[in-house]
Amino acid sequence: MRKEFCGRYFKCQSDTQTLAVISAIHGGSRSVQIITDDGVWNFSRHTDRCRFSDAGFSLDLWENGVSAVGEVRFGPLSPIRYDIMGPFRFVPFMQCRHSIYSMRHRADGCIRINGTQYAFRDALGYIEGDRGRSFPREYAWTQCFFDGGSLMLSVADIPLAGVHFTGVIGVIALRGKEYRLATYLGARAVKTADNEVIVRQGGDMFSAKLLEKRGLPLAAPVCGSMVRTIYESAACRAAYRFEKNGEVLLEFASDRASFEFEYGGNQ
């Protein structure tokens, strides 16, 4: 049996609620994890009754006294211009490969978890995915919607051919334009500490800072098995700043940011 995993992350967010669903296949098994503003649930049985696609997802989960039932539909997706991995998509034996399927789209529907209703009407959606053997040993990841756009950034320790380097991938979709930060474009992380990530790429600078720790435990893959615990804040306070050649194009703080900071034991 191949020690690999493949998963997709579906995030839905309204002005008052956040819900993310992670559908994963690992070691011949399938699991569904759900994380909200203040709760997390993991399902491993009867997940074949759920459906996931570019058009939306439906849940019909009942396990250990917990139920998650409902459907969310998506509007047209907003894919990025080309593969976020760039030329690294052709490199064999990478530990983890990332994909971005939609930076921002409409989400409509309702999921009921143990009687609590998560309702989305003309809300926002985001979809990404990962596949490979394991999550990086250290990494930071964030995603956030803002007025007129959406952003995503991941900075991670990458093992390759016996060496390690810090890899960067990120996209700022701002007022119809796509700004990309990536190792293969010259980006480098100049800070990954104190719950803050700062990336520079030529004359561009992007910073993301986690302002509060509200991480909830999620299962993550190690050699294809979901045996590691990571911590994600599905909706927390964070601050962002993006400069291009000295001009500030984006600067804001949000209490609806999604954030994982797995450097130095931070949660």
Kindly describe this structure.
With 267 residues, the protein is mostly beta strands. It has one domain. 0% of the residues lie in helices and 69% in strands. It is built from no helices and 19 strands. The protein is globular, with a radius of gyration of 18 Å.
Number of strands: 19
Please indicate the count of domains: 1
Cα-based radius of gyration, to the nearest Å? 18 Å
Number of helix segments? 0
What is the general shape? Answer: globular
> How much of the polypeptide forms β-strand, as a percent range?
over 45%
Properties at a glance:
267 residues, mainly beta, 10-stranded antiparallel β-sheet, 9-stranded antiparallel β-sheet, 19 strands
Summarize the topology:
Elements (H helix, E strand, L loop, with lengths): L4 E9 L4 E9 L2 E8 L3 E4 L7 E3 L2 E8 L2 E9 L21 E18 L2 E17 L6 E8 L2 E12 L2 E12 L2 E6 L5 E6 L2 E6 L2 E7 L5 E7 L2 E20 L2 E16 L5
Antiparallel strand pairs: 1-2, 1-9, 2-3, 3-4, 5-6, 6-7, 7-8, 8-9, 10-11, 10-19, 11-12, 12-13, 14-15, 15-16, 16-18, 17-18, 18-19
